[in-house]
Structures
1.
Amino acid sequence: MKNNDVLFCRKAVVNQLSETIAYYILHPSSVTKGQDSDFLSALFVDVNLTEITQQKTIFFESNLDELSSLPLQSNINMVVFLNGAEISEADFDALSDFRLQGYQLGIINPDPNNYSAALLGTFSHALFALDCLSMEQTITLVEDPLIASKNIWVNKIEKEAQFTQLQQVLPNAHFSGNFINRITSVKGKRILAYKAILIDLLVALNDRESSPRILADYIECDPTLTYRIIKLTHTARYRSQFNVSNAQRAIEIIGIRDLIKWVGLVMLSSVSGKPDCLFSMAVSRACFCQSLSAALFPKLEGAFLVGLFSYLPYFLDEELPTLLKELPLDDNIKSALLVRKGNLGGILKIVEAYEAGRWENIPFDQLVLKELSKESLKELYIESLKDAREMGTL
């Protein structure tokens, strides 16, 4: 992938000595707003945050509904700030549960008169924004005993006089704003989100004790992937008569063996900046490999993935050996992809030769022994094109 993608925007958060101690993470296209869960979820799996943020604490804004879909990152010190105007006593149990899970929570512009001590106790940080509050209001609120014990962060500092006054009044606080550091774009290499999910699924599938519930947990890391997997259960391919509402039930209907195939499809279709025909070609090859495998070796598994993943370098702009090192695939699949060995490798060679019209490279005499004529091979190819078109609509 290109190395100049804008991954996110950030502002430095400094201490009294103007030393950067944290980064405020912002969406690149909406730098003044709170973040949505899709952006934040993708951020954690698409980017090496530990490396980019130099292992400093990261601050970002969210809300309770979005927080439930965010992956907890044990290797990243992060604080999630929630809008105080949207918090009420009814949220106490949910906030307490998030704290027990290990989340660090902050509250934005809190007025201690509006909350109980117990509710405020679920927050370890408090953020005050000077575009919403005056300096006098901020200092008064920070001096309240229920707020003073928290880690204080003052944002939207626009003038030197503001910063100087805050340094004196709140020596242990954190500070940010355009006067200190303007918003900067962070560019780098984006790791495909679905690739990380696929790796987790492959590892889980190699564990005999993995259940549909465990696999569903990985699927549900991404709302779009969850939607498309559920949508799949309503196609003619599976003919589900049930109203499927979660990933676990969808996996039970689809079957664990087919799950990786569909996640792989979604992964490639999610890559931006590639022509639509490339995805169609990859799916057609995968379907052709699967059909040919079923005709020649009915019990052989993995042909679809071999066909699909043979296109990985064109989608991800990396060499296939490098890409396969990161994927815990069966050795037969890797051997087929890298050196065209084994039955799967033989199938891939035939399919590639057929696609290129290199008839001299197709062992028709051996195929006849398997009761597969030239006409039968043509029919398999045409059928694979039809299957690919159907898959392309999911």
2.
Amino acid sequence: MSVNPRLRWVSPRKWRLFSLPPAALAYVLVTDLVAVLVTVMASLHVSVSRTEWVWFAVLATASLLHLEAARSIERRREVAVEGVPYTNLKSLWVFTGVLLLPLPLVVALVVIAYGFCWARVYGQFVWHRKIFSAATFILASTCASAVLRAGGLESAPRVPVGPWSLVIVIAAAATWWLINYAMVVGAILLSSPEATARRALGDLSDQLVVAAALGLGIAVGALEASNPWVVPVLMVTVLALHRDLLLPQYQRQARTDDKTGLAAPTFWSQVVGAELRRAELVGGNVGVLMMDVDKFSEINNSYGHPAGDQALQAVVRVVRSEIRRGDLAARWGGDELAVVLPGTSSTELLSVGERIRLRLAHTPVSITHAKTGKTLVLDGIRVSMGAAVYPDSGVDTDRLVLAADAALLAAKEAGRNQICLATPSDNGATAPAADVIPSAIPLQARPLRRRTDIPS
């Protein structure tokens, strides 16, 4: 395995670390510095017993075996996760170390785990992110150790032997989780000003994975302190937990578009197919909307691609707020979105589309100019839409999408900023033409312009 690409020299001026917003840069550097200082201070007057060295060797070996066995899953999840807290099971071994080892050896355990992942799991990655993640592990472990000492568990092994010690250990585990989670969420919000708090928090149910890891860490710590030969048996449990909890998490993330959080096209098409089969059984309708941001390239060309991303996020927010819980929106490609609305007639479909179009046209959108860094406000975003309804416009996913796409093209050719409904087809064998719905075009498309400047 070649590591040359990871060791390629890059001038410090080109490090991605220094492309972070000033607040995020300061936050990351201070976190890393505090982690180093904590490690140095903890190492000044530490003595390690022979038993603790044995515990350290067992935990380090188990951690490496676990990461190696699960590396195919972790490599795919590493690619899929972006902009949300990255849930993993390194915390299991690190928190076990908090219960059994002095802090410097816990730090060594963190370094070994991340170093191994650098060599065997991660592909191309951003250095400052991994260093920051390791620093959050160190600081979370420091705070958890402080809780254990404050509760009277001064010397190792700090494992529960009664009700009170169990409460203290659980409090330490909760502290470890809270510190790590809060620091990661803070970094995401500071690094990505356009990120919403909801996205930065991630799926809170995923934090159950961390809770399971910390709980298992308590069990591993107790067993290693009393019956260390039983620990290898738990490796099967650990790997099963990793596969059953984290692989579905990866699969769930693979069904979504990273930039918008909407469904990915493949998953969306699968859902449309399932809804069509259901509609065939019950004799219902399925509506499909295809929408495209008018003159989206003008935003990218005039203000930069980050501004285009912000405009697209604004469209996504409006679409999500105007559709029902059972509807599903997807990013079809570029600035094109697709929405499936089960049980929707053509009249209802046009009503939903028009409501989205009007709201977008009258909702100011803040964007950041890539060159100047100033915040600008667009007076609204214009979209063109194509609508198609099962079974009138198509009897399968391909025909229905093709009909909606043809209607979208007709809306653009008719002047943009309007909705077109696909003409009903007799048998769905060919893609139908599209008719413009006059009642759906009370506004005319206007060039996007800057309404006002807001100091950044």
3.
Amino acid sequence: MSPKLPIIILGGGIVGLTLAQALRKALIPFQIYERDPSLATSDGGWGITVHWALAALESCLPPDLFARLKDIQVDPQQGIKDTGRFLFLDLATAEPRYVIPPSKRMRISRKKLRALLTEGLEEEIHWGKKFTSFETMEDEVVVKFEDGTEVRGSLLVGADGSGSRTRRALLGAEEAKLYQLPVRFMGVTVRMTPEEVRPLRDIDPLLFQGCHPDTGAYLWFAMLSTPEVNGSSGGGEYYEGQLNLSWLVKSAEDEVPVTARARVAKMKQMAQPFEKRLKKVVDGIPDDSEVLEIKLQDWPTKKWDNRSGTVTLVGDAAHAMTMYRGEAFNHGITDAARLSERLAEADLNGGSFEDAVNTYEEELRERTNPAVLWSRQACLDAHDLNNLKPDSPLVSRRTILKK
């Protein structure tokens, strides 16, 4: 029997919404509380790659929504014939140093995915709700918000990202603190004509990454949209790409500049030793472009007191990790699938949610604690091409889930 009180999901990002869709399929009541005032206020992010968690995502979504993922790919045509490979290049030559074993994948727009996942959940999403604290009593939890309101639920699920307030409330500020890696990261969206993008798509039509052997500078390039997707087909066609650079911090001069123009200048300076095609795309970044800094922080999963199964975590709140293995999203979706499965089993068989949460968290810790550390090592290895080995987590096969 479903609980009389709903499950409270804190965070209306991709993982929180995926969990909500899975609970909706299982007929388990829920409510979502998101701090942003609306979907339109989110910056949306760049692209994301779903690979080994595709089956988990499918299990969470109604068939019609899952079928529509193909329509929000950054390049639907490439999605049809994609090789699934991940290239790691020597940036001095643009030749592959490693070809990461391929897997079935989809490269999709983060912004469009989030919008898709809200469909059918309009009545359950409460916007502009900033979480402040919670209290537990027997088999329920009371969640309080900055505007003075509070709600009661059977389970509180923190899906509120790497800086999770839920995690801090569970563990305390020190235990919940993120670890800062000694690496800095900047990214920009670039617009290119078909002629400008062709040399990059000749390397790989979807995405690639690499490191320069002398400077240790790391580059990631991925398609964000094609004329078919951005509506420019038939005239004035253009492509959009995600262009990121990162580097090790060795002195104060290695910190990210404050102004956008200085950030662009730093990217161009770092790209001077790159192979000519790669150098050209960085040199072509307009000087007034918005360049984002991404903080490279992580949090290896720890055991927390789930207050007798009334509070738990999913996604980046439970296992913040760097993007160098491309697995954070895949683990988050797997969290949503595993938690919803355990709760649905308890609901169907008359079991306790406490046992369901405990079982979920045990699997979560076993799966994600090492994954965070592998991604941390991958980040460091990404900036040392000369010592990069085939067994590095940067270029080895991605997670294979246990049955």
